[in-house]
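Page 47, continued from p. 46.
Same chain as before, 169 aa.
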Amino acid sequence: MSLSEIASFATAISGFAVTASLIYVAIQTQQNVRHTRALIHQGTAARTTALLLGFMDAEAVAAWIEGNGGTVTPELIKQRQFHYHCSGAMVAMEDYFTQHEEGLLSDEQFARGCQTFRSLFKEPGLKAYWLNQRAIMAEAVPRYCAFIDSLCVDDTASRNSEVTPRSFR
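Result:
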C-alpha cells in the first residue's frame, strides 16, 4: 500500500469520525434543551407551590381577602385554603405530565404518579375544583386537560389501564 493510499484511507476515516462527532453533539444539544426546559418548568412549579403553601396560613389568607376588599370569615378562610391546596395538587400533576411528555420520567414512575392522582380525584372537592378549572384551561392546554380528565374517570377499566399523555396529541 502506497503512502497516498494510506492518506486517502485516513482522510475517509477522519471524515466519518467528524460526521459521528457532529451527530453526537447534535444529540447532546437536543437532550440539553429538553433538560433545560424541564428545569425551567420545575422551577416554575416550585415557585408556584411555594406561593400556594404560603397562602395556606390562615393569617396570610385573611390578609389576602382583606387586601382585596373582602370580609374575612372563618368559612371564607377555609374555602381559600382548600382552593390553594387544590391548586398545589394541580401544579404537581402538571409537572408530572410535562416531565413524562419530555421523556424525563419513566413509564413506571409516571404510572405510579397517575395512580396517586387518580385516587385524589375520588375526593369530591378536588374533582369539583378541577371541573371549574377545566372550563378556564381547556382552550389553552387541551392535552393536559384530556390527561386530567382521564384520571377523573371512575371505572375499573380506566384504573387498570396505563395513562400515557402522548396519546392525547
